[in-house]
Design a protein that fits this description.
- The complex is a heterodimer of chains A (about 210) and B (about 425).
- With about 210 residues, chain A is of the alpha/beta class.
- Chain A has helices at about 40-50, 70-75, 115-150, 190-195, and strands spanning about 5, 15-20, 25-30, 55-65, 80-85, 90-95.
- Chain A is elongated.
- Chain B has 16 helices and 19 strands.
- Chain B has helices spanning about 5-10, 45-50, 65, 70-75, 90-105, 130-145, 160-165, 200-215, 225-235, 240-250, 280-285, 295-300, 320-330, 335-340, 365-375, 390-405, and strands at about 10-15, 20-25, 35, 40, 80, 120-125, 150-155, 170-175, 180-185, 195-200, 240, 260, 270, 305-310, 310-315, 345, 360-365, 385, 420.
- The chains are: A alpha/beta (about 210), B alpha/beta (about 425).
- Chains A and B meet through α4 of A and α1, α7 and α16 of B.
Chain lengths: ~210, ~425
């Protein structure tokens, strides 16, 4: 199958476009008289560069005369093909580097990873389940807070309280420190000792 | 920072035990720091002394092993000031060790500058039988070592601190250390007039262990204190009834066989047919009056004697049951049942285990004391080991320092309160 000419989508765009197999190819042509104009070469090359996103392969076709004045390696470095022509023949001085077009391409549904899709569905259902549980927990907590007030529930002792004498528990007045060591908890001596000096008839050392 | 807040940071306790010195501020939480309660007076001509040039002539704390020299040196240079719970008034070497330990402990916890620190509230704890001159000397040393680090000091007896640390306001505390044991009733205050002191402790259990080693062919080990102590801890047992235990062990020698290998050595001690003698070790601690001990006394083992130290007579042969009863009966009659209801055992000398298969003949310390009291007709008793025997004195000191009001001033009659230190 040979190259097939295609129509230019941009009317400002000079040159020739072809479809070779699945690749779009564009060729910008410099004519001999263009070499006399100071900026025409640069202008043409810049235009070619701007086309790299639209075509897999781009060429600059220039009169062979230009080959004596430019360094072909620059074109190689940028992946632009270079063709020299004269009246007798056309030579490919630099082969172009075909580029993958950066236009988004749709992935056919048939090639999507079915495992990934099912995992996503599973995660989605887990998320909804968690959300449901969280709502349930919030409701339960709310009910728990309201129950004693609303229902008037109070725990009943099976037997009346015996008169168990208890040492009063002293609560240290501490605001700037964390919890005291465990041996402080419920220690009746905190209360007893905090009253030292306030009791009458304190015993003397024997 | 109000009073509670300040002292929740800057209460500092020092427990002068017979073997260990436990110290540190309240911010350490559950466990204090521990060093041996000892000091080493190095030979000034030694290489180590010249190499390290210590600033003090007595070394205390973790550096002591660096300076130790020959074993012969140790008896004169390595001083355990509280080995018997008491220091003689004129024993300057021992007091220098105590002074160095207090400085060492305070230097170990220097608060950060500019954080409101005005000095620690220091609670030191001494044996309950310490005479007044020990209080005077210790309080004086603390004031001398102040250097802006102390705000107020006080000293409380160890059994009192045990009761505080254990959270019991009416009880009898028996504190048994290396050199002696103290029975002290507590009813919100230590009842000093009812204290009973025993001239018997862990060191006496070591003495009979040493005799047993000699009798069973291990005389070469009998003079090594550290080995003897390990043997005591690993094969010594407390019998519920000594006669029954000996009979049982003789009848079933394999069941009661006492065997111990010293870790890291080839030394193995096996009492074999004499394994019954392991019960003598525990019995001797609790009750040295059994006739079987007479043979040891007659062969040269010193009988625990009554000795007078300071104003206190330390009873040698009183068993623990008798000692508790003697102490409680010096208290008001209506208080006595409440005292028997809570008997607390504290100190390493009560750490006895009961091996599997010997539960019928061996008992733990609370059971043994209960049996001794039962033999004398006291039955309604509750006897417990302190939950943290090693640290309960330090815990009690911390609580005391935290809770006693700042304006409760030291009183030489009461031997309680804060002695303010001027900075």
């Amino acid at each position: 199958m040979g190259a097939q000419p295609t129509s230019n989508t941009d009317s400002n765009q000079a040159g020739l476009s072809f479809l070779i197999g699945a690749d779009n190819v564009h060729v910008m042509v410099l004519k001999t008289q263009d070499l006399a104009q100071r900026n025409s070469i640069i202008d043409t090359v810049l235009k070619l560069s701007s086309l790299r996103n639209s075509y897999q392969t781009v060429y600059l076709a220039a009169p062979r005369l230009l080959g004596a004045t430019i360094d072909a390696s620059i074109f190689r470095a940028h992946g632009i093909g270079l063709l020299f022509f004269d009246e007798r023949r056309i030579d490919e001085a630099v082969a172009p580097q075909p580029l993958q077009a950066t236009r988004p391409q749709l992935i056919p549904t048939s090639v999507q990873d079915s495992g990934l899709v099912s995992e996503l569905a599973s995660l989605k259902s887990m998320y909804f389940e968690m959300e449901r549980n969280l709502t349930q927990l919030r409701d339960d907590l709310k009910n728990l807070h309201e129950t004693p007030r609303n229902s008037g529930f109070a725990p009943q002792l099976s037997q009346p309280l015996q008169g168990v004498p208890r040492e009063p528990v002293y609560t240290p007045n501490i605001t700037q420190r964390g919890p005291l060591p465990s041996y402080f908890s419920n220690n009746p001596w905190l209360d007893v000792l905090s009253k030292r000096g306030r009791m009458e008839n304190e015993p003397l050392a024997g | 920072m109000n009073g509670d807040n300040y002292r929740s940071h800057y209460t500092f306790a020092m427990d002068f035990g017979t073997s260990d010195f436990k110290y540190g501020p309240i911010t350490l939480g559950e466990n204090p720091r521990i060093v041996n309660n000892r000091g080493y007076f190095p030979d000034r001509s030694s290489v180590m002394y010249k190499a390290f040039e210590p600033t003090s002539d007595v070394i205390v704390g973790d550096d002591v092993p660096l300076y130790l020299q020959s074993a012969e040196d140790l008896s004169s240079r390595l001083i355990y000031p509280m080995r018997n719970g008491m220091i003689d008034k004129g024993d300057d070497q021992a007091w220098r060790v105590v002074s160095s330990l207090t400085s060492y402990s305070l230097d170990s916890f220097k608060p950060e500058p500019n954080n409101g620190f005005q000095g620690y509230y220091i609670v030191a704890s001494l044996s309950s039988v310490s005479p007044r001159y020990m209080y005077e000397r210790l309080l004086g040393l603390l004031q001398e070592n102040n250097h802006g680090k102390i705000k107020a000091v006080t000293v409380i007896p160890q059994p009192f601190a045990v009761a505080i640390g254990h959270g019991v306001t009416t009880c009898v505390v028996i504190e048994s250390g290396h050199g002696n044991s103290q029975v002290c009733p507590i009813s919100k205050y230590p009842i000093r007039a009812a204290q009973v002191a025993l001239n018997r402790g862990g060191g006496d259990a070591n003495a009979i262990t040493s005799e047993i080693l000699k009798d069973t062919g291990y005389g070469d080990l009998a003079n090594e204190e550290a080995v003897v102590r390990k043997v005591k801890e690993n094969i010594g047992l407390v019998p519920g009834n000594l006669d029954n235990a000996i009979a049982d062990a003789r009848q079933f020698p394999r069941k009661a066989r006492a065997k111990y290998r010293v870790p890291g050595t080839r030394v193995e001690i096996d009492l074999e047919k004499d394994s019954w003698s392991r019960f003598l070790i525990g019995e001797y601690v609790f009750n040295p009056n059994h006739e079987i001990f007479e043979s040891y006394f007659s062969r040269g083992m010193p009988r625990p004697k009554d000795v007078k130290m300071g104003d206190t007579i330390f009873r040698g042969m009183l068993d623990f049951g008798e000692a508790i009863i003697a102490s409680v009966e010096r208290c008001p009659v209506e208080l006595q049942p409440m005292l028997y209801r809570e008997v607390l055992l504290s100190g390493g000398n009560f750490s006895w285990v009961v091996p599997p298969k010997l539960e019928e003949i061996a008992v733990d310390a609370p059971t043994k004391v209960r049996l001794l009291l039962r033999d004398r007709g006291i039955k309604n008793v509750s006897i417990k080991m302190t939950s943290s025997p090693q640290f309960s004195v330090w815990h009690g000191c911390i609580i005391y320092g935290f809770a006693v009001p700042e304006n409760y001033e030291w009183d030489w009659q009461r031997l309680e309160g804060w002695m303010k230190v001027s900075n």
